[in-house]
Amino acid sequence: MNQNKKTKSWIIMGIFLSLMWIFIRGVSLPVSNFIIEFIFSLLFCMPIAYAFRMFFPEYTSISDVIWSIPYILLFLFIFSRDLFAANIDVAKRILDPNLPISPAIVLVHLRVKSPLAITTVANSITLTPGTLTLDYVEDSNALIVHVIDSNNTKSILDTIYIWEDYALNIFHELPSRTPLHKLFLKSHEVL
């Protein structure tokens, strides 16, 4: 894609942070409150995005960002579901007098290549109770992950690979997008 159809990544990040600001603070009607809050948040968030611009690619296609939104929303839904299930699972293990844990260290080979996609997958693993990303092996593009139950490793890896499928689409690392309904159906097969 030529540079004319791209914009600076930090500008998009600044707008995203501003929208998150409004979402977190909550804005009541009338619309003028939203406009005032958005302008105030831009004044605060744009310098922050500019200061951290070296962590993102220099240019981003706005159309790529827009095409990623459904994948991001579906990923957040699937991840929230998996996070809830993992919390219940770990709570059951803790409350069980036998403490049924069988920890193990597994190597998770990744298909994602960009640092942001790798970080997204690694952080998703760490945020989920019962798993923890210990390290990244650059030579083999793999994560070293601690799991709470070595008897359930296949299920844990299947879940991680589902998250990676979303990351591949969100960060445009595939030659073409996976249809959203196929990703959604695949995420339900893991249950």
Uncertain segments: none
Structural class: alpha+beta
Rg value: 19 Å
Strand order of the largest sheet: 3-5-4
Tally of alpha and pi helices = 6
Summarize model confidence as the mean pLDDT. Answer: 86
Strand content: 5-15%
| Total separate domains | 2
Oligomer class: single chain
The rounded distance between the terminal residues' Cα atoms is 39 Å
Summarize the helix and strand pattern as letters.
Answer: EHHEHEHEEHH
Helix content: 55-70%
Main sheet record: 3 strands, antiparallel
Principal-axis shape equals globular
Number of DSSP-assigned strands: 5
Characterize this entry briefly:
The chain has 191 residues and is α+β, with helices and mostly antiparallel strands. It is built from six helices and five strands. It folds into two domains: 3-56, no CATH class; 62-189, no CATH class.
Task: Write up this protein.
The chain is of the alpha+beta class. The chain folds into 2 domains: 54 residues, no CATH class; 128 residues, no CATH class. 59% of the residues lie in helices and 13% in strands. It contains 6 helices and 5 strands, in the order E-H-H-E-H-E-H-E-E-H-H. The strands form 2 sheets. The chain has a 3-stranded antiparallel β-sheet with strand order 3-5-4. The protein has a two-stranded antiparallel ribbon with strand order 1-2. It is globular. The relative contact order is 0.12. The mean pLDDT is 86.
